[in-house]
Target: DUF2004 domain-containing protein
Amino acid sequence: MPKHSLPYFGQIETDNLDEYYDASVEISGNEISIDLNFENTATDVSELNKISNFISCIEKYDIINRGYIENDYQDADGDTVKFYVEHHLEELAPEDLEELIDLAAARSEQEKQLLLRLKLVRVGLYPNGENSFAVFDYSIGEELTDDLIVINTDEKGVLEHMTIES
Model:
């Protein structure tokens, strides 16, 4: 059976794919999980090369996504990031917040500080999915909240959709 090596996942049998693969990796100093989800039982080398190229650029896509997050926060019509930040400032206990931000700061400064605490926690890849190729999950802390800012992109890292999920 033909095999192809993918970063973090090792050897993948192109004619006998598992539905799900996962790996834990360090990206930009943070531990994240990457999962690879196939709908088909076989794929070709060109598809795996596309996946490999995407995986090798995750750090770059993280930087681009942070721009999308900042733009949504600054956009008067953007409601995803602003809602996420405001919700957590209101709902988290002060003892949890003080580990993340300066509680004595002005509200707008607290929002900016919390925004800087968003970290990439997961990347899901869906190479034969009908929707997005990649899903990036961001959190201020998985031990503090189940809520995530979720960024869906195409195979080139271009934003398709941003939302909040639990």
